[in-house]
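Checklist before submission:
- one chain only
- standard amino acids only
- sequence pasted in full

Submission:
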Amino acid sequence: MQLDYIDSINEYGDNIVRLYDFDSAEAEKFMKIVHETLVLNKKSLDLSSIKFIVARNCRLTLRIADEDEGISTSDKMQFYCDLTIAGYKQMIALLEQFCNKETKGYQFLYDIDSQTDFLFSPAGTW
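Returned file contents:
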């Protein structure tokens, strides 16, 4: 599984932080780590600390927030995803489809009007 940042994907200046290049087993491991760390233990999760994730050109930390804000950054290198516990539960529900079978599909992991989206895509495409 790889993590990277893609700047200016459209004419509106939107960006993507994406997790890609994974199979259903890695998707399931990732889903379980998100559930255990954020939902059960209520702690932040630095994705670069997960052994099977290779951070290519950025770092992403998932944090618990009082409201769903999505991904933000001040330097385009260190990113923070701020969601409520309910937001992470919704993310986990979106991840489940990638755990049951191999797929070429993709999913944006939240539906928030922010400049940076969070893409989960085995093939890296959208």
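Reviewer check: The beta strands are 2-6, 15-20, 45-46, 54-55, 59-64, 70-73, 78-83, 107-108, 116-121.
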